């Protein structure tokens, strides 16, 4: 049974972000960006995966708890709650993502330990809210699979199926907000809007170190770049022994795990 929390009617600009990925430097920069935009925590919506590749899983979990913004479970949080041994993305055995995920997930699990239930025991799977005359649902990856990767290049049928599955549970909606895949984009299909807000903990494989977040206003969604201390984040990963290529990706803006991407998004 999907755990759904309704936020009611939200007014003013909303800041949408995902994937802190244990990158506390990026998370701190995101909070500073929200303050610059004069958007309070209650109007900042997090799409999950506070932990992943970076060095500071516990610090990010504590920062999210302190920031106290509306949030949902990412697959990484769900796997920690379940006592699993990996992130649950279902990567093909032997791929870069498969090999690396075992190391960083174990690192995060050691830091979080039994506190997973304290941090996420009451976190919903989805959020619903209304804003500027439209109704939205916030999910992590996909409607039936929290770790599903949905890309901007996917055919319309993929998005239509997601909308149908969600509307069967929550009724008519105008848009879906998600994260997980790490690529920010907006896609309108059959009059409904799919918004991937991107992630703040890793750049979107575009050759630049800046990561992404989004702001939803009455005029629609706009994507923003986030700059932060990449040198400190990389140094923390190296000191923790997390050197499978993601630490370099923070700086050069390229994923070591390009094999997870559709061919059209590879460089």
What does this structure look like?
- With 267 residues, this protein is an alpha/beta fold.
- It has one domain: Purple Acid Phosphatase, chain A, domain 2 (4-Layer Sandwich).
- 32% of the residues lie in helices and 20% in strands.
- It has eight helices and ten strands.
- The protein has helices spanning 24-36, 57-67, 75-81, 96-112, 116-120, 156-170, 230-239, 246-252, and strands at residues 4-10, 14-17, 44-46, 126-131, 134-138, 175-178, 185-189, 192-196, 211-217, 220-226.
- The chain has a six-stranded mixed beta sheet, with helices on one face. A four-stranded mixed beta sheet has the order 3-2-9-10.
- The chain is globular, with a radius of gyration of 17 Å.
- It starts with a strand and ends in a 15-residue tail after the last helix.
- 44% of the residues are buried.
- The model has no long low-confidence stretch (mean pLDDT 95).
Keywords:
single chain; alpha/beta; Purple Acid Phosphatase, chain A, domain 2; 4-stranded mixed sheet; 8 helices; Metallo-depent_PP-like; Calcineurin-like phosphoesterase superfamily domain-containing protein
Summarize the SSE layout with pairings.
Elements: E1 4-10, E2 14-17, H1 24-36, E3 44-46, H2 57-67, H3 75-81, H4 96-112, H5 116-120, E4 126-131, E5 134-138, H6 156-170, E6 175-178, E7 185-189, E8 192-196, E9 211-217, E10 220-226, H7 230-239, H8 246-252
Parallel strand pairs: 1-4, 2-3, 5-6, 6-8
Antiparallel strand pairs: 2-9, 4-5, 7-8, 9-10
InterPro entries: Metallo-depent_PP-like
Protein name: Calcineurin-like phosphoesterase superfamily domain-containing protein
